[in-house]
Amino acid sequence: MAAPTARPLKRRGGKAKAGVAKPGRISGIFAFPALLVSLVFTLGPIAVIAAFSFMTQPEKGGGVVFAFSTAGWKQFLFSEDFFGNVSFDSRYLQVFGTGLWQALLTTVVCIALAFPIAVWMAMKSEKTQRALLLFIMIPFWTNLLVRTYAWILMFNENGSVNTVLEAIGIGKKTLLYTPFASAVGLIYTFLPYAILPLYSAVAGFDFRLVEAAYDLGATKGVVIRRILWPSVSGGVLSAIALLFVPAFGSYIQPVLLGGGKVLMPGNLIASQYAEARNWPFGSVLSLIVLLLTLLGAGLVTVWAKRSSQKVSLSI
């Protein structure tokens, strides 16, 4: 006797009706309050700053006068003397150039330091990896301001760094309130943000591919370039996004460690809102920083799409 053949079950009523929620899903109306709050607290301040950038600065005090003006945008590139002569002014471009240089230096140094650390951590046992991750997370348990003041004590004229330099015969150096101190503070602050995404990418890498590449005659440079780098490039891009953008707008390190001698966009914006009381121009600078940030994010996205490739053993 032939075994009965299984027939495909038919859905009652034919195709599923449109608008009927599938099992395990909820209606989008429940997410509407969260989306509304997110839009209000993200796009709302940006809209206010954009509106302020086209307002007029009052003659006395801070705030804005609700009268349309493009003086803030013109002030970014041009200056006007007492006789009304307008000339090109590159002072603010130099400030943004300093910010870009400090952010680029911080990003490159942090990734160069974090990459071998992440590879070394990924090759340890799971217990050791958890302990190392704990050590990396410890700085986050302390306020950034407190950690920055600790660097002030170390870079001081009688601090521990100068004490070591004097002991080895180099002599005391002026370290505090210099671009060097500001750069060191930025690198120290953002180094964990580079290690964590790189470690996450390297931890999922199959190191047997490296052994296979060595068996095929590959050198260390080829292994890093053709095997390891394609697998961790996503972590590198994440590290760049986490480093460059906040480093570009940093405020604490240039002020406390640089002593105000290292003027970056964050310090310039704060001075326009506080000391100069020029809110329209401060809003203009804020929008320019936002546009540069969006441009950088777009470039990283394009780079990520172009660099996405599979790991290959072809040497």
TrEMBL record:
PROSITE patterns documented for this protein: ABC_TM1
Metal-binding recorded as keyword: no
Keywords: Cell membrane, Membrane, Transmembrane, Transmembrane helix, Transport
InterPro entries from the UniProt entry: MetI-like (IPR000515), MetI-like_sf (IPR035906)
Topological relation to the membrane, as annotated: Multi-pass membrane protein
GO cellular component, one term: plasma membrane
Transmembrane parts of this sequence: 29-54, 99-120, 132-155, 175-199, 227-248, 281-304
Top-rank taxon, per record: Bacteria
CDD domains listed in its UniProt record: TM_PBP2
BP terms from Gene Ontology: transmembrane transport
Protein's cellular compartments: Cell membrane
Similarity annotation: Belongs to the binding-protein-dependent transport system permease family. CysTW subfamily.
Protein name (database record): Spermidine/putrescine, ABC transporter, permease PotB
Species this chain originates from: Bifidobacterium psychraerophilum
